[in-house]
Amino acid sequence: MEVFKTRCLVKRDGKNAHQNADVIITDGVPHLVMEWKITPEGETPAATLALDPKFFHRLDPSWGVVTHVYKLTIKDPRHSKERGRVKR
Q1: pTM for this entry
Q2: Is the pLDDT of residue 85 over 80?
Q3: Which of 54, 61, 56, 53 minimizes the C-alpha distance to 21?
Q4: Per the domain annotation, does 34 fall within a domain?
Q5: Which residues form the domain of 8?
């Protein structure tokens, strides 16, 4: 599984913050990994949030380890009154 380091804006408890997050692609759709689970085989996504592919873009290599950007604010459903669809 390929993991993309992605720059995004995340809203938690009404406050926005830029962060670098892990994104995986499942069935052609980018998913933000909200939580990782450690297994004997290694780390696997424990909770993911589907993102709109139209706003997921590759960055110039000068960004270094961050390879992509997501251009919509992501509401973290674990830290807000508005619950989203987090896959577990």
Answers
A1: 0.82
A2: no
A3: 56
A4: yes
A5: 4-81
